[in-house]
Design goal:
Length: 245
């Protein structure tokens, strides 16, 4: 089995609450051929003090320049791995073989990207804990002893960069669109990777704890916003369809 180098990219802005847990989990991984890159956009809450305790590469960008696409592209440009893994500053890998499982998935040459499942952090809301746990269990049952799903069509949530990976060569070929930098940029990249003839794999073994502490009312509002975001991505793809040929 090839030991592919994995570059873990974490976008941060005032992530003092959980960034230590994220970095601790990554430094305890069984798979050692990896690097950690932090793209920070001006944290002032002590995040940088925590980051200094860990073996990471810190890349700073101006807060006013931030959007999801720009920060992710900066991370990719500063990476040296074969595979790029995206985590948020509050996405804590559950298992110590998280990176090892990523390496196993990308042994399959037809896979261009992959993403995993999410359960709520211990301080997540009851709504998040129930919703995410049900989603995780449904995915696990649907696998029917398979290692992962192979997907060739986009849908809401595919390649969500709170817990997702892709071959670096594809991210250089298909950088995140700055026009979609306020959300949905990851879905558009997944579309282009699929159009290039690759599958996007979904694995329940790539499990992270990730949540925002959203109340039921706020969660419903966020859920509706995700739906609108997906519609915007579809409209963007339709508008630029000739560029995907």
């Amino acid at each position: 089995m090839k030991k592919l180098k994995i570059s873990v990219i974490i976008r941060t802005y005032n992530e003092v609450k959980h960034i230590g847990e994220v970095l601790k989990s990554l430094t305890e991984q069984t798979y050692l051929n990896h690097e950690i890159i932090i793209v920070d956009s001006g944290s002032v809450d002590g995040t940088l003090d925590i980051i200094e305790r860990y073996p990471v590469k810190l890349v700073s960008i101006n807060k006013e320049d931030f959007n999801y696409s720009y920060a992710s592209n900066v991370g990719v440009q500063n990476s040296s791995g074969d595979i790029v893994c995206f985590l948020s500053g509050h996405s804590v890998p559950v298992y110590k073989n998280y990176l090892e499982k990523i390496n196993e998935i990308f042994q399959e040459t037809e896979i261009g990207a992959c993403y995993g499942e999410v359960i709520a952090l211990p301080d997540g809301s009851i709504t998040e804990k129930i919703f995410n746990r049900i989603g995780y269990l449904k995915s696990k049952l649907s696998l029917n002893n398979k290692r992962f799903f192979l997907e060739n069509k986009i849908h809401p949530g595919i390649f969500s960069c709170s817990n997702a990976c892709a071959r670096k060569k594809l991210l250089l070929k298909y950088p995140f669109k700055v026009e979609l930098g306020h959300g949905g940029e990851d879905v558009e990249v997944a579309y282009r990777i699929i159009q290039d003839g690759y599958f996007v794999a979904k694995s329940v073994e790539l499990l992270v704890m990730h949540s925002h502490g959203s109340s039921l009312k706020k969660f419903i509002k966020e859920y509706k916003a995700w739906g609108k975001m997906y519609e915007d991505v579809l409209n963007f793809i339709k508008k630029n369809n000739d560029k995907y040929q």
